Amino acid sequence: MTRPVPAIVILGNGSLATARKIAQLYPGALVHGLAGRVEGADRVYHEFGATLREFYQQGTPIIALCAAGIVIRTLAPLLLEKGAEPPVLAVAEDGSAVVPLLGGLGGVNLMAREIAAGLNVAPAITTSGELRFGTCLLNPPSGYALGDLELGKRFVSDLLAGETVRIEGSAPWLAQAQLPEDTQARLAVHVGPGERVPSAHELLIYPRSVLVAVSGAIADLPRAIRQALRDAGIAVQSLACLLAADTEMASPSLREAALELGVPLRFAKAGASAQELARDAIAQPVCVRGDSSIAVAVAEQPLDLSQIGRSRGRLAVVGLGPGAAELMVPAVKAELARANDVLGYETYVRMAGPFRDDQVLHCTDNREEMQRARHAFELAAQGRSVVVVSSGDPGVFAMAAAVLEALHESSDAAWHSVDLQMLPGVSASLATAAQAGAPLGHDFCVLSLSDNLKPWSIIEQRLDLAAQADLALAFYNPISRSRPWQLGQALEIVARHREPGTPVVLGRDIGRPGQTLRVTTLGELSVDQVDMRTMVLIGSSTTRVIPRAEGSPWVYTPRSYGDKLTPIP
Fold first, then answer.
1. Residues 321, 413: one domain?
2. Same domain? 415 vs 443
């Protein structure tokens, strides 16, 4: 399993050179710079504390180029369970000091050594076990799992007190450690997949060398898998993955079992039995036990999952929000980070970046929605992790509907087996409304004035009914060079049901550089004040305008409809 890519966070331009050196050590790592103080960072953030806490809660390793005390105070409220910490390091802005702070069981000291070597300094490691033995016994390498953390702490404490230790099983990473080995020692590091009773005298480390193949419907699958492992004398900690036929990719019971057991799912071409599935999947020597429905395969070495079947393809349709990085929801950021392929209109794909070198970008024209959706399914059906990007929210005049339409039209079973997710974003109407106050604070209607995909007669009818219903209105695609007359007609329709003093909000490029916000009235609004990049919000009969200390006035639509309010000009 690969390590998560760290986030490098800096507060000023003086740290940028050091940050770039560190980024070279971790392919895909991005430098996050404070807005207004850093020029040339990969990503911009606006609040240091919120940014660090978000990374920490996502499990992202953090390399902060600032004083250690700032990081400690920022993350202190989140420190709950030692075993759940991602690595957190503080690095001097000139690279003269590397201090591991959190994540001893997540490899923070390994990262500290890597960064220190890259900067040609000594890491400030204070962990007793690592200083004495040159390794963290409680943090075995990828492909191995620690048995019991609390017993492990007691074990290391006894070692530090002067006891010797013997190694049972294959532990190649300990060959270079400075452990006080003795073949007759009371303490033992035991490495193997077999189920053992935990003991304070043993440090149990399990190689993830076990695969469980499943074929057919099985009641209470997690319990059945645990029982199969128990019958085979295998510890559940050694389980590396579940394997099933690719015809079962969409099986809820398989997905729930994998989640409960904390292991990934892999899929292969269907075999006659679970034993055949298991035997065909593993290239190295393997012992297979079980029957036609559940088989336990034990390999001699930890399994390389990339060589076993393939994963279920994933297709996420995401909304980037209006453009500002801080308005992109964390789930979308995480999805972009895990993606193999990113598809979308080129402007939006560039907005979602930067990307790692191994991520493939598929940029297309904004009018090629269905082709883009079909291409996304073709990629995901190969087992890839695919993201289709939209600005704003993907379900508001964007790609979510096109993706579902492509799926609806397809009879390809592989497409229907893809793990399809829709992740929301802040839509342009909501971002504009937030800048203005709460003009959409009561019932409202969102319409696109583009007649590319629907007749203008339908737009007119809906406009008339929405305006008659006294709904606040949000107009997407209000005008373009090919449709210079439609906004004017739309305003004429609205004016049949609204007073000239009805507040109107014009938000252009909200959430992007150069954004502008203007508050006017329906009577004063002219077509030349609007372009394709403008969001038009027209209030209802109750929408109010109040002064703001600076900038445009506040606009809001009260939620109460008991006493009809007269708009204030």
1. yes
2. no
How many CB atoms lie under 10 A from the CB of residue 45?
Answer: 21
SS3 191: strand
Phi/psi at 21 (5° precision): -60, -45
Under the banding of pLDDT at 50, 70 and 90, the label for residue 282 is: confident
In whole angstroms, what is the distance from residue 308 CA to residue 138 CA?
28
Choosing from 403, 426, 449, the residue where a domain stops is 426
When divided into structural domains, the chain yields a total of: 5
Q: pLDDT for 100-118, tens place per residue?
A: 999 887 889 989 999 999 9
Question: By residue range, what is the domain housing residue 343?
Answer: 314-426
What is the distance between the alpha carbons of residues 377 and 137, in angstroms, rounded to a whole number?
Answer: 44
pLDDT, tens digit, for every residue of 367-393? 789 999 999 999 999 999 999 999 999
Burial class (CB in 10 A: 0-12, 13-18, 19+), 137: buried
User: Which one-letter DSSP state was computed for residue 565?
Assistant: P
Whole-number pLDDT of residue 81: 58
Residues 359, 273 share a domain = no
List 267's β-bridge partners, or say none: 244, 310
Residues 445 and 356 in one domain: no
333 and 226 within one domain: no
What is the greatest pairwise CA distance in the chain?
95
For residue 266, the domain's CATH number is 3.30.420.180
Tokens of 68: 């250690």
Determine if residue 383 is left, alpha or beta; phi over 0 gives left, psi from -120 to 50 gives alpha, anything else beta.
left
Closest CA to 332 of 394, 378, 381, 383: 394
Assign 3-class secondary structure to 200-256.
CCEEEEEECCEEEEECCCCCCHHHHHHHHHHHCCECHHHEEEEEEEHHHCCCHHHHH
In this prediction, residue 562 has a pLDDT band, given cuts at 50, 70 and 90, of low
CATH number of the domain enclosing 454: 3.30.950.10
In whole numbers, what is the pLDDT of the chain averaged over residues? 91
Mean pLDDT of 33-60: 90
* Residue 214 counted as domain residue: yes
Does 521 lie in the same domain as 438? yes
Q: What is the pLDDT of residue 568?
A: 43
Q: Is residue 567 part of a domain?
A: no
β-strand partners of 389: 318
- Identify whether 564 is part of a domain: no
- Alpha carbon 372 to chain centroid, angstroms: 22
Q: Given a cut of 60, is residue 230 above it in pLDDT?
A: yes
Side-chain half-sphere of 320: how many Cα atoms within 13 Å?
A: 26
The secondary element (H helix, E strand) that includes residue 371 is: helix 369-380
Closest alpha carbon to 272 in 213, 225, 221: 213
